[in-house]
Specification:
single chain; 195 residues; alpha/beta; 6 helices; 25% helix; 30% strand
Length: 195
C-alpha cells in the first residue's frame, strides 16, 4: 500500500511521519500530482495560517487536484480547515470539499483562544473512530473551528459545540492533531489505513 503525505506550506509534517512510523506504515512526502494520484491513501496535514497555505496549494495546482481524489483522504487541523469552503482566517477561499465555513472562536470570558490542550470527542459517526470510546480525549491547538453541519462526523465543545471531525464520501478530516493524540490518534491512523 502506498501512502502519500501532501507537501505544502504547513508545519507538523514530522509529527505525522513519526505517527506513521510507530504503526509501521510506509509513506512518501510529496507535492507531485502524479504521485498523489497514484497513492492508495492521502494524508493532508497542517499547522499554520490558512491564506499562506492556500497560496502554496494554488501555486502548485493542488487546490484543483485534491478535491478530485478518489482514494481515502485524511486532513488534520489546518488541513481540515482548508478542505472547507471558506476560512475567516485572513478572508481565505478554501477548497470547498466540505460545505461549511471556518469561523474564528468568539471571545468569551474564561476561555483562551486558541484552544490548546486535550478535549474529548463524542457522537462518533465515522469509520475512523472504530474501536474508540465516546468522550475519548484528543489534542487540539486552533483558533478557528468548523461549525456543526451535515458532514459533522464527531463533535467536541469548547466555548461552543463544533465539528471535531468531518466526512464526505472518501474525504475524512479531524480538527484535532491525530498525530499527537496518543493511542486514540494512533487508532484513527490505523483505521484510516485499513479503509
Amino acid at each position: 500500500m502506498k501512502t502519500v503525505i501532501i507537501k505544502y506550506n504547513a508545519g507538523n509534517v514530522q509529527s505525522v511521519m513519526y505517527a506513521l512510523d510507530r504503526i509501521g506504515a510506509a509513506y512518501e512526502w510529496t507535492d507531485d500530482p502524479e504521485t498523489i494520484l497514484a497513492a492508495d491513501k492521502v494524508i493532508f496535514p497542517g499547522v499554520g495560517e490558512a491564506s499562506t497555505a492556500m497560496a502554496y496549494l494554488r501555486e502548485h495546482q493542488l487546490d484543483q487536484l485534491i478535491p478530485t481524489l478518489r482514494q481515502p483522504v485524511l486532513g488534520t487541523c489546518v488541513g481540515m480547515q482548508l478542505m472547507c469552503r471558506y476560512s475567516e482566517e485572513n478572508d481565505t477561499t478554501c477548497m470547498g470539499i466540505f460545505d461549511v465555513d471556518v469561523l474564528r472562536f468568539p471571545r468569551v470570558s474564561g476561555f483562551k483562544v486558541p484552544q490548546t490542550g486535550w478535549n474529548d470527542i463524542y457522537e462518533l459517526n465515522n469509520p475512523l473512530c472504530a474501536g474508540l470510546n465516546e468522550h475519548d480525549y484528543v489534542y487540539y491547538n486552533h483558533g478557528y473551528y468548523a461549525p456543526l453541519c451535515a458532514q459533522t462526523a464527531a463533535k467536541t465543545n469548547y466555548i461552543l459545540e463544533y465539528s471535531a471531525m468531518l466526512q464526505k464520501d472518501n474525504f475524512f478530516a479531524a480538527q484535532f492533531h491525530s498525530e499527537i493524540s496518543g493511542n486514540v490518534g494512533q487508532r484513527i491512523f490505523e483505521n484510516f489505513l485499513k479503509l
